[in-house]
Specification:
alpha+beta, 7-stranded mixed beta sheet, two-stranded antiparallel ribbon, rod-shaped
């Protein structure tokens, strides 16, 4: 039996990646990739925490359908809201980083602002992703290979749902027998 994943991580990562790469209009990589960093300018994404559940209590729901296969008449679903903290960074080479319209801070600010657009939120919603909050941006800059690089960072907290389901059977009849209690009955459920 194949185990079900509680989150479609591929859909989650694609939705976040698409928003960020379209927003900064340059190449973006996930930091867990083994590929070398691309030429400037570029962006990086990194899931730094999550999925973190908002509660230890799972929402539980069941439904019953006799038209399902025998042993799968009951569908039991569990779910709980959760969130991911995603670090979003932009790197711009020093010579271009001094121009406000193309420096890293401006670029990441544009990306964060786009999270308020209905068109962006609609695409994220289709993938089952919501925006909880944006932390930052900050503009730490960075010295890389003896050269200053314009770098800006924001952490975006994205929400989604952890959910699983399983199918169970049921007993259609039960035979109750007890000589002590004087019971000998068949019950139809």
């Amino acid at each position: 039996m194949a185990l079900e994943n509680p989150i479609d991580m591929e859909a989650f990562e694609h939705a976040v990646y698409d928003w960020f790469s379209e927003s900064i209009d340059t190449q973006v990589i996930w930091t867990h990739q083994s590929a070398p960093r691309p030429p400037y300018p570029y962006g990086t994404l990194n899931i730094i925490t999550g999925p973190t559940k908002y509660s230890q209590m799972w929402n539980r729901e069941e439904d019953f359908d006799v038209t399902r296969d025998a042993g799968e008449e009951i569908r039991a679903q569990i779910g709980v809201p959760c969130y991911f903290d995603v670090s979003c960074q932009v790197f711009v080479k020093a010579s271009e980083g001094r121009y406000p319209q193309v420096n890293a801070l401006n670029t990441i600010t544009r990306a964060c602002a786009r999270l308020g657009l209905e068109s962006v939120l609609g695409v994220l919603k289709t993938a089952g992703v919501s925006v909880i909050r944006v932390e930052g941006p900050s503009n730490p800059g960075q010295l890389i290979n003896d050269a200053f690089v314009s770098r800006a960072v924001a952490t975006v907290v994205f929400g989604t749902i952890l959910s699983l389901e399983e199918y169970l059977g049921y007993f259609a009849t039960a035979d109750l027998k007890s000589t002590t209690l004087g019971i000998d009955e068949k019950i139809e459920l």
